[in-house]
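JOB MANIFEST
job_type = single_chain_structure
chain_count = 1
residues = 250
[input]
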Amino acid sequence: MKVAQDFMVEVPALKIDEMATRARKILRDDVYREVYVHDAKGHLVGYLDITGVLNVTSTKSNITIEGFTKETLSVKTNQTLEDVMRTIRSNATDSVPVVGNQNMLLGGVLLSDLFPVFITRHRLQGRVGDNMSVKVVKCSPEDPVQKVYNLIVDSGFTAFPVEKKRKLVGIISRRDLLKDGRWRTSIEGGTAGTPVESVMTTPVFSTVPEEDLQKAAETLVKHDISRLPVLEDGVLVGIIDRHDVLKSLK
């Protein structure tokens, strides 16, 4: 039976006295949503996420990451995949740290790596409508990518439906921003810059409230996406992501 160690990968980690600007660069420019924090001896202290340290905008700031570090639950190398998934659900993160003796940080397990295994091992029950989030953060095609960046920082979400005249026309994710690259000029220059419509992904994969949760989860895996807009009669009524699916884990 596979355990946490079988899925463990190297993850970004910083010492607690390092500069916040370094953490900001990692979280801004890489695919990771979390950076783990350890002390001088390598013991896990906590983690940083995109909702905090990305607000540090000065490149000459002498602020350390200590004030942004949050507590986190961890797993041992021999814990089951179900234990790992429950811990990720409790942390509400996209990864979980793996520790050894004396809480020594060894690596991490990514939700994106574990999710496909989870949905094949567990037949999910219920409908999308019973598990989706109804409070949807969205944007418009004409919005500058600066707004998307601010939404990521403020909400912690990493993908947003794009609506025009109440019609879903695309979705924009942190991954889209990273792949495009032009957004950095807008962010750093403080200008309106690139519009969302030139970066967003289209057409959009979506689902409906009546859809089986299992099928929606399989769509997330098949297309390697983290969130699915939920439409009812063509109108956006919710969104479902990997964490919503994890609610079905007992």
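[summary]
Residues 81-91 form the longest helix (11 residues).
Residues 128-246 form a domain with the CBS-domain fold (CATH 3.10.580.10).
exit_status = 0
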